[in-house]
Amino acid sequence: MSVLSLQNISFSYGKTLVLQNISYEFEKGKMYCIIGRSGAGKTTLLSLLSGLAAADSGEILYNGKSIAKMDKYTFRSRYIGVVFQSFNLLTKYTAAENVILSMDVAGYKAKNKKQRALDLLYSVGLDEDEAQRRVLKLSGGQQQRVAIARALSYDPDIILADEPTGNLDTETQREIMGIFRRLADEGKCVILVSHSPEVASMCDERYQLVRPQPTKK
Prior knowledge:
By secondary structure, the protein is of the alpha/beta class. The protein is built from 8 helices and 10 strands.
C-alpha cells in the first residue's frame, strides 16, 4: 500500500495552470525523483505533498486518509520531514541545537534529546566536534547533512527534499545521495526534486512533470 498517493491533483497560481490531473503513488522503502524543466511545478508539488499548499482539485492521501481532513501542523511535524535546497537552518545555533529544536517543535519525546541529535548527526557523517559547531562554521555539504538529520529528528515516514544536491560538488552529491539511499533501504519513503540526471538515475522511480499547455480560446 502506498504511504502517499496523489489522485488527479491540479493546481493554479491565479489563472496560470501549473499542475493538471497528476496521479502518483509513493511507497515506503523507495527513493523517488520528480524531474522536469524549470517552471514545470516541481517545487509546487512538494509544497502540496507537505501540506504547505492546497490543491485546487483532486486528493492527496497519507496512509489512505485525505490530508485535507488532517491537522496540517500535525501532518508536517510528525509524518513529513523536509530538506530544503537552502538548508533553512537556524544559523546562530549549533548543528546539534538545530536538531534538538526540531524535536521540541514537533513535540517529539526522547529520554535524551541531545544524545539523539548527536546520534542522528553521526548517522549522516558528522562527528561530535562538528555537531557542536554553529552551522555557519560548517561547509555546504555539512549543513545539508544537518538539514537531513533535522528532518529525521521526529522519525517521519516520508522525507521530501528540494534540489538537495543543487549547491554541492560531485563527490559531496554522491555522499548525500548515499544517505538518502540508506534511508530508503531502512524503510523511509524518500521523494527528491532534482534537475540532475545523475540524481534521477540513482532513484528507484522517476516522475516527469510537464507544465500544462495554455488552453486555446
